[in-house]
Amino acid sequence: MDCSCEKTNDILFEADFADPVWCAVCKENLDLDEFPISNELKQMIGNWTKKYGHWLDWDKELLKIGAVRTEEEFNKEGRLLSIKLQHELPNFTICYKKSYLSSFYT
Question: What are the structural domain ranges in the chain?
Fold first, then answer.
């Protein structure tokens, strides 16, 4: 959990094509495997992260049908995972940032 801040307790939980945990201070991407969380939660977060951007046709740079609804469901799942992450990491402050990816294509 080391970053440019040297050690942080403030975590930004945001989906991307990398691990979805970031230092909330310096914005450095952190390795999820370095956190003392259950394998079950790591797997749930990994599965969620793999869904990032599935509402976009990347080749055509267009939204797929139902993209906004799909992204909303993705964000709901992310919010629930951030609550579980906070439960397993009580000494950290977890801030969830939802995806606004579809808004760039409307």
Answer: 10-105
